[in-house]
Amino acid sequence: MPAAFLLLFVVVIYRVVSGFAGSADLAWLHNVAPLAAVALCGAAFLPRRIAFPLPLLMLFLSDAALNLFHYHQPLLTVEILPRYLALALIAALGYTLRGHARIGTLLAASIAGSLIFYVISNTGSWLYEPGYAKTFAGWLQALTIGQPGFPPTWWFLRNTLLGDLFFTLLFTACLTMQARKEGSPAPSGADALAPW
Fold it and tell me: Is 194 among the domain residues?
């Protein structure tokens, strides 16, 4: 499964490079990231003993690079906990797809993963950001318009959905092409690009 490891490495490098390059000129790329796709597809396709921890470890290493060297933030903050909770749930979802990860189920799981990440990470922001009232209305604000001076949070959801779907398709297509080239069954014994 060398292609899976290479793909994990490439998409994490993409995340770090796009984070360092993230400027006003690239604002449309914010949240178009491989986070959930790495957690989902890694858990679905990697060997069982590393399917869950390796993608989360690689994402943690990319967070470390971005937080320490680009954002100049502490590595572990309270804000990071909801994100990793969401990614762990997405990886668990991917793990349930092992052996029957077809394109339709992967795309549905990718959309579900985007929604999981969106709700949990924005609920986390609502809890620890002082700019949000700790009421139901404040929580709805965190899920829709966000805080003044920033793009609305639904905009980040749109970008998250696009990124998750793109990277899930890329990951699945590359693994399936490698399996076909080698004449072996597709990842996890299922034809990942078979119809729904």
Answer: no
